[in-house]
Amino acid sequence: MDTLRYTYLLDVLVRHHHHCLFVGPTGTGKTVYVKSHLQSALPADKFTSMLLTFSAQTSANMTQDIIDGKLEKRRRGVYGPPAGKDMVIFVDDLNMPQVEVYGAQPPIELLRQAVDHDAWYDRKELSLKKLESLQYVAAMGPPGGGRNNVTHRYLRHFSIISMTAFDRDNLQLIFGALVDWWLRKFSYSQNIAKLAKGLVGATLDMYEAVQKQLLPTPNKSHYTFNLRDVSKVFQGMTKAAGSVEDSPSGVRLWAHEVLRVFYDRLVDEPDRLLVGRLLEQLTEKHFKEKLGRLLGMTTTAGGAAGVADDELLGGLQGLIFGDFMVPGADIKLYKEITDQDKMLHVVGDYLQDMNAGSKKPQKLVLFQFALEHVARISRIITSPGGHALLVGLGGSGRQSLTRLAAYIQEMEVFQIEISKTY
Distance between CA 104 and CA 94 in Å, rounded? Predict the structure, then answer.
């Protein structure tokens, strides 16, 4: 219902040449709604579109150059899209540019000038350039966390649409449909298909719990969780295709994806233990299974407290899935890796093959943590839209393990050298 509502409002405003601004928290679909509508739903003979994504480092000159590069000269001193068309400029993350010393945001002031006066100055010729047939659609999150307040002199030009976060019922409907599609596509038995409701409920419970209990602090500024994390859990599960053998395997796959999405971001032991205990509770609540039994751990004396803290963290660390255990396989199966010695041997063979064809061979000593990181990086780079930020001390293997994981997945590595000037 929300999708239809927002898309209808966007369509009406754009066709009647009104600027519009979507405001809402991360993960509510602002960018997806606007991009899909501008690219596919507007008549191509009347509209053309372009995308601008602002960041903290976006400058006014950069913004002007990007827009100027898409415009054509219509007549002397007048520029616009191809004749007979209107251009819709979509500005994503509108409030991200840094505030300068005088309190302004230069890229936004430039856009304000363009809307107020339908013109700006050519910086080379120092002459006024009239702009025709341009209109703006923008999206931004609420101020805070690197986002700034936008001047009301600019906002007054927009019809502002507030996008609310999805409620629990909507989220269950959306992700329930995704899980059902996955189960139907690979013709899973009823024994595994009955997990669908529990998978969605447990993931949403985990998401809500970490949002409330793992808040960002100056030391943990990356503890920001949003709906994209929930979707990554299910995206990771679908990588298993039809390889889930039984109900316990399905629960272990779900636990693994939750660990990769939420657990790998954590920086200290108490936080990891918190997520581990949450996982333990949710496994019992939604799947009527003991996490300790699923992972082959022993229960502490009396059994009331579940497994000991150290054993729980060790068991979670040993839960690894990957699709690289059969080198040269035509169809790579994303399955649980239970034989650590075999994994060491297989990854060691990949390393030897990579060094044999490399001008700069890497002399690595592979051990348990290194193997786990290779599996994590492989999972991320084979996921659609998968990006990883590896944080660690110098010499901890970030570059070398990334190169090894990329070789395993038959990908090329291109490295950007960061210097003082770039």
Answer: 13
Buried b (16+ CB within 10 A) or exposed e, 399-422: ebbbbbbbbbeeeeeeeeeeeeee
Phi, psi dihedrals of residue 137, rounded to the nearest 5°: -120, 135
Q: Which amino acid is at 183?
A: L
Give the C-alpha separation, 70 to 324, whole Å: 44
For the stretch 205-235, pLDDT in tens is 999 999 999 998 888 888 989 888 999 999 9
CA angle 211, 217, 222 (to 5 degrees): 65
Distance in angstroms (rounded) separating the CA atoms of residues 354 and 361: 8
Rg from Cα positions in the chain: 26
Q: Find, among 70, 116, 10, the residue nearest to 108 by Cα.
A: 116
Using DSSP's 3-state secondary structure scheme, residue 139 falls into strand
Count, residues in the chain: 422
**Cα–Cα separations (whole angstroms), residue 27 to 5, 215, 224, 232:** 17, 17, 12, 12
**Cα 374 from Cα 235, distance rounded (Å):** 19
pLDDT digits 0-9 by tens, 275-319: 999 999 999 999 999 988 888 876 554 444 568 888 899 989 999
pLDDT, one tens digit per residue, over 86-113 is 999 999 999 999 999 998 999 999 999 9
Rounded to two decimals, the pTM is 0.83
Q: Which residues, in sequence order, are CB contacts of 200 under 8 Å at separation 6+? A: 171, 172, 175, 176, 179
d(CA 292, CA 252): 11
Extract long-range pairs of 2-6: CB within 8 Å, 24+ residues apart.
2/163, 2/164, 2/166, 2/170, 3/29, 3/33, 6/33, 6/161, 6/163
Provide the 3-class DSSP secondary structure of residue 53. strand
Q: Look-up: residue for tokens 């939750």?
A: 258
Q: How far apart are the first and last CA of the chain?
A: 46
